Amino acid sequence: MNKIFKIIFVLLFIFFLALYFGRYNSTLFENEVQLTNQAILQYEKDLKSGITIDSKKYLPPKKNYNNRASRLGVKASNLVDFLFRKLFSSLKQLISKY
After folding, report:
1. 3-class DSSP state of 54
2. How many Cβ atoms are within 10 Å of 47's Cβ, its own excluded?
3. Is 65 helix (H, G, I), strand (E, B) or coil?
4. What is the distance between the alpha carbons of residues 52 and 41, in angstroms, rounded to a whole number?
């Protein structure tokens, strides 16, 4: 029984970590400074002609990747995060008694 509990706990912890870091994956690897070749050529042309430069004009528009699946994943991750915080705070109190 104890062995099964440990296996389930480890699997839940790995699942939590996967969801937790997966949520931040898109923000860690976003790179807004990459310009397409066409945007670079347009930038150089505008620079030579003396037009006021606005960086937003040359950056591609941000894509919105929110959908039901991603929102569900974030909600599940938040729930697991909440449950683990409760679990660890309870374990901390239990351990501090001994």
Report:
1. coil
2. 10
3. coil
4. 15
Residue 53 zone, left/alpha/beta (φ > 0; ψ -120 to 50; rest): beta
pTM of the model: 0.39
Residue 73 near residue 22, CB atoms below 8 Å: yes
Q: Residue 5 burial by CB count (10 A; 0-12/13-18/19+): exposed, middle or buried?
A: exposed
Tokens standing for residue 74: 């974030």
Q: What is the pLDDT along the chain (98 residues), one digit of tens a residue?
A: 688 888 888 888 888 888 777 766 655 455 555 557 778 888 889 889 988 888 778 777 777 778 888 888 889 989 999 998 998 898 888 888 87
Q: Which residue has the tokens 């070749």?
A: 37
